[in-house]
Predict the 3D structure of the following.
Amino acid sequence: MKLLLVGYGAMNQRVAALAEQQGHTIAGVITPEESIKADYPVFNDFSAELPDADVVIDFSHPVLTKQLLQSSIMAPLVIATTGEKETLEQLMQQKAETQPVFFSANMSYGVHILTEIIKHATPMLKQFDIEMIEKHHNQKVDAPSGTLVKLYDAIVESGHLDAKPVYDRHEQSEKRDPKEIGISSIRGGTIVGEHEVIYAGHDEVMSIKHSAQSKDIFASGALTVADTLISKPNGYYTYHNLGA
């Protein structure tokens, strides 16, 4: 595949390295950061004369992703940007009318399976209190992570439509409301990514957890999705319908 990368932070650098190991070609990188050093052509915006590509992979930020979705690029899009979920999803749905568009807040297939387990377990644990914890490296900007938001949405859709997310429990001096779902974000060191959902009942606790050991699992996931997406018709895809 010939790939065009949107953003050139740590994730797309891993995508580029792994792609070349697998025999793919990097056609170019789109990033507004003029000081970026890359072994590929670098373009600062979408108005430039961009090279042809089989697939575009976007690990960037909402501002750049919105520009991508409003650009004239017609190649299939693999988008892993988190933040401004509702705005980006609306733009992705519009773009999907003219080309294949895939989105996931987490490119790990293991996190996809974690989400499915949570959807299955939550209805059976309705009397349990739910707490959620995510941990990431000290360079991550958004909190909570897009993946935790995805897991929270799965819990809500699985029978907790009246859930109340609580982010700052230390500011409260009252008993826990049964409808609350506590959300905690931890930032430190080089933690790649950990997501845990805790179900606390009477005299028993269940914990469902996913730990990423390397950013390569996300890069590999993006490349696998890209290889599948190029043969798909126009439409909006996630891990739920990509294999359909």
